[in-house]
Specification:
alpha/beta; Chitobiase, domain 2; 2 domains; eight-stranded parallel beta barrel; 19 helices; 19 strands; globular; Beta-hexosaminidase; glycoprotein; HEX_eukaryotic_N; Glyco_hydro_20_cat; Beta_hexosaminidase_sua/sub
Length: 582
């Protein structure tokens, strides 16, 4: 052993055991464990050294980076990660124990917002006791800390690769998860755990779909009755202090918190406090003997804000103003999806408006023209769902939504709608339900549904009641190219993507398994892509890495669902298929 490594006889025993383990013909290397895979990683020596039990991280003070540094140091020294497949490495005979990771940040003042530089460079030399992490911003430094933490493994001693160089930066700047907390409530601790897991996967946007027709859990100082009367109860509320906790936690993990107050549709819960501004509230969603086109909502839970009622805008401006004050995020998601004609037509004032040659699209334009400028005046960029421009029945003229102030989030028709959005000059966030909806494939939630009782000889049960079936596997998510079919100029308008967990059939008991590790699949494709250096899809080699990453996430307290039997992981490649699909 190297003379400059001082070890007790107890430590020497573990090193001997380690050498016996790594002498077996395993193919994994510790650098391959990093998830998402870095853009460039060079480790030609396959050498490792001991991480000192007195390891420290030296960094400049920053109100959000410093807590992250403390958190990562504790995690690195106490995680004791044991890979499912031990790595093939050699312990360096000339490398000292790694004592320090030194962090250098060029711009300590850059705020966490869209387009902030998240790049970093990590160097762990062979002949030095100090590793170096350099980044343009503190947010890049956080990404580099996560990478470093994943490179450490073992227990006594801890080991870390040496002779390693990483340069890393995301392909897409917007990498997020949408969580719906209206249909079912999630305590703050569950939200924090989700943000923590997002940071570990280098995801950077928590899209908080806070309100919907089913409940209004957000307490707002200017409109306290909305939550008092529209929530599921006093124990299922988010106070301003709760929001501050989530936002601060997000900042300390490099995760933006993007609020969505969906309107004018999906607002049935507002009627508990303001019945006069909500049309078709508390009515049965699909009246008997009526066609689907005449429904009042696309699922149980009716109600849409009335654009003709002046009180609508006073309440809404109070809501938006309070939300903007609570969330420092420069983007504000205003919803705009699934406006159902039947709901507005149920209102007498709207019936009169339509009888005088008014249209539903004009109603929506009135609504947008009364709210969009107000959101802009609060120094926010407005995000809408794609429906506001692409819906077949109710949509606004593009002149109402200048592209420089508007972002559209797509969820229908896969790459076709993304193409429609960016070819019109709008920036896009991709959440195609065919690939990125995590709730799909669990059946429908409406009761008394005859489609579950087909004749036994019918040959199948269809989609099981799930409108967006089948279940979106990690492979489906991993292989989706969100810029498919776009020109290079159009691709520049794709900000990134979000997987979405709508909560009709999800709550805290299944939160982790619904999201992880499928969201990890998107995390890698948006960070470093889903293809190798030759341009070939790399899902085959990603399987083993994702298994290892899921194992590590579970040990970090994230109850991610398994991808394969443990036997497959212990026998790499034996559970693959070598036959092309037909």
């Amino acid at each position: 052993m190297a003379s400059n490594l001082v070890m007790s006889s107890h430590c020497s025993f573990f090193l001997i055991l380690f050498f016996l383990l790594v002498s077996a013909s395993f193919t994994a290397t510790s650098a391959q464990w990093v998830w998402p895979k870095p853009r460039t990683l060079s480790w030609p020596s396959s050498l490792a050294t001991i991480l000192s039990p007195h390891f420290t991280i030296s960094s400049p003070y920053h109100q959000h980076l410093s807590p992250a540094v403390n958190r990562y140091r504790l995690q690195i020294l106490t995680e004791f990660h044991r890979p499912l497949v031990p790595p093939r490495v050699n312990l360096s005979s000339s490398s000292p124990a790694l004592q320090t990771l030194t962090i250098a940040v060029k711009d300590l003042s850059a705020p966490l917002q869209h387009s902030v530089d998240e790049s970093y460079t990590l160097v762990i030399p062979t002949a030095s006791s100090t590793a170096n992490l350099t980044a343009e911003t503190v947010w890049g430094a956080m990404r580099g800390l996560e990478t470093f933490s994943q490179l450490v493994w073992g227990s006594k001693p801890l080991l870390v690769p040496v002779g390693l160089h990483v340069w890393d930066s995301p392909l897409f700047e917007h990498r997020g998860i949408l969580l719906d907390t209206s249909r079912n409530y999630y305590p703050v601790d569950d939200i924090l755990r989700t943000i923590k897991a997002m940071s570990a996967n280098k995801l950077n946007v928590f899209h908080w779909h806070i309100t919907d027709s089913h409940s209004f859990p957000l307490m707002l100082p200017s409109e306290p009755d909305l939550a008092a009367k529209g929530s599921y109860g006093n124990e299922m509320l988010y106070s301003p202090a709760d929001v501050a906790t989530v936002v601060r936690f997000g900042l300390e993990h490099g995760v933006r918190v993007l609020p969505e107050i969906d309107s004018p549709a999906h607002t049935g819960s507002w009627a508990e406090a303001y019945p006069d501004i909500v049309t078709c509230a508390n009515m049965f969603w699909w009246p008997a003997e009526s066609e689907w086109a005449d429904r009042l909502a696309s699922e149980p839970g009716t109600g849409q804000l009335n654009p003709l009622n002046p009180n609508t805008y006073q309440v809404l401006k109070n809501v938006i103003g309070d939300a903007v004050a609570l969330f420092p995020e420069p983007f504000f998601h205003a919803g705009g999806d699934e406006i159902i004609p039947g709901c507005w037509k149920a209102d007498p004032a709207i019936q009169s408006f339509l009888s005088e040659n008014g249209t539903l699209s004009q109603l929506l334009e009135k609504f947008v023209n009364s709210t969009f400028p107000y959101i802009l005046s609060l120094n926010r960029t407005v995000v809408y769902w794609e429906d506001i421009l692409l819906d077949a029945d109710v949509k606004v003229d593009p002149s109402f939504l200048p592209p420089e102030h508007t972002i559209l989030q797509t969820w229908n028709n896969g790459p076709n709608n993304t193409k429609l959005i960016v070819s019109s000059g709008y920036r896009a966030i991709v959440s195609s339900s065919e690939f990125y909806y995590l709730d799909c494939g669990h059946g429908g939630f409406v009761g008394n549904d005859s489609q579950y009782d087909p004749p036994p000889t019918s040959g199948g049960s269809g989609n099981g009641g799930s409108w967006c079936a089948p279940f979106k596997t990690w492979q489906t998510i991993y292989n989706y190219d969100i810029a498919y079919g776009l020109t290079p100029e159009e691709t520049k308008l794709v900000l990134g993507g979000e997987v979405a967990l709508w909560s009709e059939q999800a709550d805290p008991t299944v939160l982790d398994v619904r999201i992880w590790p499928r969201a990890s699949a998107m995390a890698e494709t948006l960070w470093s892509g889903n293809r190798d250096e030759s341009g070939k899809k790399r899902y085959a080699e990603a399987m083993d890495r994702l298994n290892e990453w899921r194992h590590r996430m579970v040990n970090r307290g994230i109850r991610a669902e398994p991808l394969q039997p443990l036997w497959c992981i212990k026998n790499p490649g034996m559970c693959n298929t070598v036959h092309p699909s037909t």
